[in-house]
Write a structure and sequence with these properties.
Chains A, B: GO terms for molecular function: FAD binding; oxidoreductase activity. Two copies of one chain form a homodimer. Chain A has 490 residues and is an alpha+beta fold. Chain A contains 18 helices and 19 strands. The first copy, chain A, starts with 10 loop residues before the first helix and ends in a 7-residue tail after the last helix.
Chain lengths: 490, 490
């Protein structure tokens, strides 16, 4: 836990910001700013020098133009639920909060799209179009609070992205204020727009290329039928093999999730989803026309039994189905019942390497004497190992951080990646150097520079230090995690 | 038709190129170079100063390093089937032909991907994996000759992209030689790779960001059943309404194509697909599990009848189905039976604006006295109006070009785009200024500059002249189409 000293901006800049967003849109009191000193990565905190709460694109543009003129760093913030420190302010920088830009601007059912402001909460989208038979597909576990602006910045995923794709699949167009203060439109109303796909670059760029101020999203027709199956296995390897067999049978479930014994227990204690108690629980959701779902569910149940499932239970009502998902989505928070503290990690491996990576995690866990519980988006090969620890025991937090980053290293070594959906942010910036070669990173950096020549848009995130090229370096301040010895891992 | 004078490169550069690719890999004779003076956009021709035929990434890298050192423009070329002049050489520039890089390097069935060199022909991919039950989905009409490298450069589409997505959906990773001569890897073996999605920027960048030398592609499990329906309507509006109704019923066909009376007649004459003679033929292909296809096909037939289809005929054998597609894919070439010359245009509109755009096309067609026949990827709103003319009548070619570009302007005015799948290239570079605002284009240009600071990678394509920023301008040479009065349209 580290809190910087509070450095107010010069009066001339504050005056410009106030002119941009009005007196009630500018926060400068320490007590007000503290809300914004971290996001879901609570281990690192920096007090912003100010927070602005714009009400329109024009106000955002005025704020960013002020920042560009005075070379002040800014970071956009939605609900602050990110887990990698993406919304952490820069030292001396400001926060642009989207708490007042929460309008659904347009719903176009015929063309299956809606246009919203960045502060709209993820599941408000579905709430708005559900009466007409549509839904918004990406469903991060935090969907009841997280905002679309943050989802775009992080290319948010979720259990149903196996079938429906990540946020990037669902963003059709963006209005963006560039770090230079220019307003641009990325994407086009039609498919395969000519020119460069800058929409795809922006989605998942973690706030380093500018600020999205309007977001046009694809909405999807609700399937006729949705069914979820719970299958209980004696080992995660058997559950994992079932996942591979289902994909090989050309069945694409809406979701395939695995929870291990510890996760099952904690979810059960937290929200009572009535899961079977077993080593590995496989949740398989199928959706589509009723005839297809019925047919495929038969095949899926057979594949579960072939791989040793000793129970395969369908949720029979919508209420039962929602309870199954409530348990799964509560898995992270429920880890609080297993230990005073925990780190939710996020790595990706090729689906076929699942047993191998689990062996390695078990071995590493044993070596350092900390428990790790595992929840996976199994169809995607996206692991969420949860490292359990007790911060009140001196040194244990650091061991937990080291273990969680070590798991990522294993993922990369097995041909995977350091993040599936949580982003790099501040947390994993050093890991990028382990994942990418220097020319690959340098190319990304040049693109960043093309958008943000002054390096003011969420600086010091995403890329490893020392900086690579074209960017001002400034005095080097060691990373709080680095000083604690993380460098040995990456 | 315009052919530049042949300007040989200085001996020192030729020696470097020969050192890079060997004597038999370097073409400099005028008679050899003439093959490379244009692609499918035959109206513009430029003789390259040399052609190299590398056999490996290392050779490509050596060639590009030579180009970077001496500031020589280069363009990569596969089969030269592009329709927008994407593979047209720059004046004094060289062509990098991938005719000798045609290996399928790796097939990974478990992870449903394959890695290939850029010179591999599109349908060789499916031929290779079909025995194992897989296929490569994007299917441009030229798929029997066009190469994957060109497909990546243009983000190629095809009839089945309605369900399966464009090339960009299927590219998982690229090895790229940047215009600086550096070798980088874009994308990652796993989903949602951290950092910027530069893979998405590169796909469809039309050769302006470098040269792909290895391409990793997704392959798809062959569906259990494929069925194609031919429905005959008395008007294109009714066929178009059927398309909207099918999508609204949450049915996603593998393909939905409309052909008008002229296209039907010419296809019939060319390959005898036995189409019903009507004002508008709707081809609907469904694929998936047999039970699902049967169920959905019943719904589709009902929707066709509800909209006035007086015939709805299923292809009963695989041979019949292939014949249906042979007719559709022959539609462009068959236009040669309707007139001595024709221009295949490529625009996109929101699906719901189809009747409106067809009225406008009919009106414009009448005004200038040239026939236009229409073939659409109707599900995607992607039009291919074919403008028929006779180049031997003085002035008629220019009227045809003006009409074809005028149709694009209508597409943009209705909220659409100037290209669905053929690319911008040289043909439509001026149209980009009609489609995008200056800051949008300028942002793309800065990204281009980040990849290609010397502006040597397929220069003078994609962006309108005059150039926007950060790029050397050089003496202005008027566009062959511009001098002929196209500027009035864009």
């Amino acid at each position: 836990m580290k809190t910087q000293d509070h450095a107010l901006l010069p009066a001339v800049i504050l005056a410009e910001l106030e002119a941009a967003v009005g007196r009630d849109g500018l926060l400068v009191e320490r007590s007000q700013l503290q809300t914004y000193e971290c996001d879901g990565l609570t281990a690192i905190r920096t007090l912003p020098s100010a927070v602005v709460l714009p009400r329109s694109t024009a106000q955002v543009q005025a704020v960013v133009q002020t920042c560009a003129r005075h070379k002040i760093a800014f970071v956009a913030r939605g609900a602050g639920t990110g887990l990698s420190g993406g919304a952490l302010p820069a030292e001396g920088g400001i926060v642009i909060s989207f708490a007042r830009m929460t309008e659904i601007l347009n719903v176009d059912l015929v063309n299956q799209r809606m246009t919203v402001q960045p502060g709209v909460i993820n599941n408000h989208l579905t709430a708005r179009v559900a009466p007409h038979g549509y839904f918004y597909a990406p469903d991060p576990s935090s969907q009841s609070v997280c905002t679309i602006g943050g989802n775009v910045a992080e290319n948010a995923g979720g259990a149903h992205c196996l079938k429906y794709g990540f946020t990037t699949t669902h963003v059709l167009g963006l209005e963006v204020v560039l770090p230079t203060g220019e307003k641009v439109h990325l994407g086009a109303p039609t498919l395969d727009a000519p020119g460069y796909d800058l929409l795809g670059v922006f989605v998942g760029s973690e706030g380093t290329l500018g600020v999205a101020t309007e977001i046009t999203l694809r909405i999807v027709k609700k399937p006729e039928t949705v069914q979820v199956l719970l299958a209980a296995f004696d080992s995660i390897a058997c559950a994992g093999q079932t996942v591979s067999d289902i994909i090989a049978a050309a069945i694409l479930p809406a979701a395939m999730e695995i929870m291990d014994r510890l996760s099952i227990q904690s979810a059960e204690a937290a929200v009572h989803p009535n899961y079977p108690v077993c080593e590995a629980l496989l949740l398989i959701e199928l959706d589509g026309p009723a005839a297809e779902v019925a047919l495929q569910m038969d095949q899926v149940r057979q594949l579960c039994r072939d791989n040793g499932a000793w129970e395969d239970r369908l949720a029979h009502t919508e209420r039962e189905r929602m309870l199954v998902w409530k348990g799964r989505k509560a898995a992270f928070a429920a880890a609080g019942r297993l230990a005073p503290n925990y780190i939710v990690q996020d790595g990706v491996i090729p689906r076929t390497r699942l047993p191998e990576v689990l062996d390695r995690i078990a071995q590493m866990s044993q070596e350092v004497g900390l428990q790790v519980t595992n929840v996976f988006h199994a169809g995607d090969g996206n692991l969420h190992p949860i490292v359990l620890y007790d911060a009140s025991i001196p040194g244990q937090e650091q061991i937990a951080v080291n273990l969680s980053l070590g798991i990522l290293r294993v993922c990369v070594d097995l041909g995977g990646s350091i993040t599936g959906e949580h982003g790099v942010g501040r947390e994993k910036q050093e890991s990028m150097g382990y994942m990418y070669a220097e020319p690959d990173l340098s190319t990304m950096h040049r693109v960043r520079h093309a958008f943000d020549p002054e390096n003011i848009s969420n600086p010091d995130k995403l890329f490893p230090r020392p900086r690579l090229c074209g960017e001002k370096t400034g005095p080097y301040t060691p990373h709080p995690l680095e000083t604690a010895g993380i460098a040995e891992y990456f």
